[in-house]
Each structure stands twice: as structure tokens, then as C-alpha cells.
Amino acid sequence: MKLQCDVEVVNRMLPTFGMKSRGKGTRAVLSIGKHLDKTTQRSNIYLMICTAKDRAGSKYKADSNSLKNFLSAARLADRGSDTSSLPLSTLTPVRARDVEQPKKKLAIVSKKDYPLTSNFPHSLEQLQVSYCKLSRVDMRMLSLKALRKLDLSNNHIKKLPATIGDLSCLSELILHNNHLEAFSEALCLSTLQRTLQHLDLSQNRLQTLPAQFCQLRELVNLKLDDNALLCLPFHIGRLSKLRFLSAAHNQLTVLPGDFRKLSLENLDLFGNPFIQPNPLDHKMQLTFPLPLQELASRAVANLRIPYGPHLIPAHLCRDLKIAKTCYCGCICISFYIKTAVSMNLHQVSHTVVLVDDMGGTDAPVEQHFCSLSCYSEFLDNSLQRGTR
Predict the structure, then answer these.
(1) In this structure, are strands 126-129 and 149-151 parallel, antiparallel, or unpaired?
(2) pLDDT tens digits, residue range 55-89?
(3) Which of 96, 107, 160, 353 is the most buried (most CB within 10 A)?
(4) What would the CATH number be for the domain defined by 105-251?
(5) Gap between the Cα atoms of 221 and 68, Å rounded
(6) What residue ranges do the domains of the chain occupy?
């Protein structure tokens, strides 16, 4: 679509340099069409102005809604409609905010600067609201669909709304130094599974994290320092992209067996009351013979038979999701022997912050056994290593 007309392109910065525009248009061709954006590899609608001096033309990307209104008015004018019925406004100079670049970053670090009556710019990609004494997440923030980074550190937030999971572009969530007591299952099962890479929950009041936390499989950096965590998520090893983990100054006494599967660059577990592991100290949760339900569940897990709530009861599905791996490699569900063994944390991380003031880098890790024979074999091997 092309229109031959006189066009004047004015740089609004000219008065800043003491210059004036010519105030005279140049014969040009105004076109509306598609153009391939090399950065996104997508075709977008652009306005292009070509003059005798610039035959290649200058391209201007326009907002789709504005283009629709523009074309609608042009169509009505082309049909010879009465000008009084056309949806046209009187030509006036635009406001500065109409031609400014969309605001992508906003930082509010004082309560007096917090907007009470106006909305946040919808174009925001990074938003920081700190030291504002917020007790809850403002719902206006949750309408920012382009948001990639949300920093709500140093507030008084006690609970996170599940609708944070509707922020489909969110890759970084910082909640340092709040009053959080839980991280909900709903957030773990939201779109954050596909987008969240950096999560800072340090200096809160967390005691546990849900089993579904390990569904956040895009996590690269996780900060859990200075909480009251009694344990880490059972299947933490499923966070295969995790590279930075800090959980210093919590109440961890032992690490989950799945911890062995992590492949980290930096690990900090300083200041936790880890137990001194002793393979002879164990918890036995076995019956002889094993119940039929346990045998069937083990068969499903070991043979990797597909299952779901449409095939078996929901509580069995939950049990299978927290299945334990035995020393021999087989799966056990609800009946097992459990002990703790020492592991050098350098096995899972390139850099390790010392675990205690004594300079140690070892920590206790849970070990499960599916049978008495597996536990006996493990003890024999441990004794043989100790006598060498």
C-alpha cells in the first residue's frame, strides 16, 4: 500500500541543539508493508518513507493497534464518507510521552515514590520495588505481561499470589528479605516451569519447600540462605540446569539422596547443623514379606510402566513420585532402610564454600536400601574400606 504525498520528518531533538526544522515537506512515497526483522526473524508491519535522496527508504515500526485505527480511518476517507463521521482527531502537536521510547526499566526504592493512583507502564520488562514495606504483591504488577525481572526484596510480603505464575516471560524473581512462610505448589506448576531461571528466597521464614518445587527445571541460580529450612526438596536432582545453589544458615541436618545428581559450579551450605553420619545408625521401615501394594509399586517404577490418576488412585501416584533409589539401583516406595553417608561436596560442585568453621567440605547424604541384603552388603563394603 503506497501513498504519494509531501512528507516532513521532524527530529524533536533539534531545539535542544538550537536548530529549527525546514518547515517544508519533501515529495515522498509513504508505504505500509511487511519487513523481516533480522533479530527476531519475524515479519512485522512497518511504515516506510522513500524520497528522491533516499530511495531505499527509512522504515518505522508501528504499534499494531495504532496501525489498525490508521488504516480504518484511511479506508473510510477513501470511500468518500462524510468527514464528520470519520474517527479522526484534530491535528495537534503530540505529547512528549507519545513519542518517547516505551519504558522498560523502573526502580522504586522508597515508599514515598510508590505509585498509589497511576498504573505501572505496561511495557516494563524489569521492575524493582524495594524498601516500600509492602505486605502483599500489588495486583497491578501482575498485569505486566512483558515483565522478565521482578525484584520485591526488602519488604514485608508474607504470601505470594498464584497469579505470579501468569507472568509468562518472568525469568528472574527476587524476594530477598521478606516474611515468606511458604512457596506454593501452584507457582511450581505454573508457566514459571518454562521461564524461571533465577530465584532468590533468602532471608525469609521458609521451613519446607513443596515436592513440586523440582518442576522449576529451568532454574540456574537458587538462593535459600537464612531461612529455617529443615530439608531440601526430595527430588532436587531433577534441577538439571541448576549451577548456583546457596542454602547457608538453615536447619539442614542431612541432604536428600537425589543431591548426588546435581552438577553445580558454586555451592554454599555453610552454617547448617549437619549430623555426623554413621552407617550403623539407621531407620528400618521394612516388613516381611513386603505388602503386595509395595511390590506392585516397585514393579511399576523399576519397569517404567506409565501410570496416572486415570489408571491408579491419586495417592499411589503421589507415592510413586517420591520413590527412593536403593544402593543397588532398584526403586523402593514406602518400605526401606534409611541411613546417612558422608559425601564430599566437590563431587557435585566445582566450587564449594566450607561447610563449617573446621574447614570441612563433607556433608551427610541420605541413602536408602530396598532390602536387608542390600543394607548388609553396604555395611560389609564400608567395613572393608575402613580396614584398608
Answers:
(1) parallel
(2) 777 777 766 666 676 777 677 666 766 656 655 55
(3) 160
(4) 3.80.10.10
(5) 43
(6) 1-69, 105-251, 283-346+362-387
